[in-house]
# Entry
Amino acid sequence: MNNLASVKNHPRANPDAQDWHEPVLREEVVALLQPAAGRVYLDGTLGGGGHAGALLAAGADVVGLDRDTESLAHAAEKLGSYGSRFTVVQANFADAAQIPAVLARAPYDGAVLDLGVSSHQLDTAERGFSFRHDGPLDMRMDPSSGEPAALLVNSASESDLVRIFREYGEEPQSRRVARAIVAERERLPFTRTGQLAALIEKVLGRRGRVHPATRVFQALRLTVNDELGSLRRALVTIPPLLKAGARFAIITFHSLEDRAVKTFFRAGSERWLDRPEWPAPRPNPDWRFRDLTRKPLQPGDAEVSRNPRSRSARLRAVEILPMAQEVAA
# Structure
C-alpha cells in the first residue's frame, strides 16, 4: 500500500504534464456517479487522476488504486491538495476486497474502472507498451512484479502464441504471426518492441491506418497483466463493497472487455428468468442491478477529435439495488 506521502516524490511524477492522460468520458462518468460532499468513491484505475479529480472537485472523497507506481506518483502530486479526502493504494483493483485501506471506507457510493492504457504508458518507450516507440518488450502495469512480454514471446510454444493472439487479440492471422515469431526467435530472441512490430509488419504487410501489430500487442498486454482475469474478478468482488443506490461504471476499449461487462451487468439486471421449457418465469437469484446504460455511452465527435485514443471507448454502468426482498416489499 502507498499513501500520498510515500509516492509523491516518485522520480517520474510530473503533475503539470499535459500529455499524461486525458480521461475518457469524464463528464459522462460524473453524471452517472453523481458525486457530492459526504460521498466516497472507489477509483480502481487511478491512472493520471482525471476521473478521481473530477469526483474530488465535486466534493466527494476518493480511494484510488493502480498497479503502476508512476501513475500513483503523478496522481498523488496532482491531487495531493485534497489531503485526507484522497487516498492512494498500489494494488490491482481485482483485489479491492482484500485491501485494508479500501475496506476501511466501505461501503462506497460508487466505483469506476477505466480499463484503457494511459497515454503516458503508451508514450513512454521504456514501458514497452507501444509498437510506435521502440523500447524494451515489457508491457507490465507493475514493472516490479510478474514477467515481461519478452519472456512470453521467447518461451511460449507456437500453439500457445496462436491461442493468445486469436483469443485476446482476435487476430485472424494468428498462426502466420506465431510461426514467424518462433522461427525468428531461434535466430535472435525478441527484446525490443520495434523488433517485434517490424516482424509482424513484414509478415502481414501494411494496409490503412491501423498498424498490423495492433492486435498482437493487445493480446500480449492482456496476457502479461491478466487483464481479463482481473476484470472478471473485479466484477464479482467490487459490487459487495458498494451500498444500495451506488453506481458502478466501467469504461472498456475493446470487444472482449465490453462483452464481459455487458454480460455480467445484464445477468444481474434481469429480475425474472424465462425459458421455453418452463411453465412460468422464475426469480433471478443474481438480480441486484438496475441497468443505467442499455446501450453503452461513447465519446462524441468533439472528444474523439480532441483525443483520438478515445474512439473505441464504451461506458456501461449499473445501480446497486437493495436486497431483492426489500425491493419487492
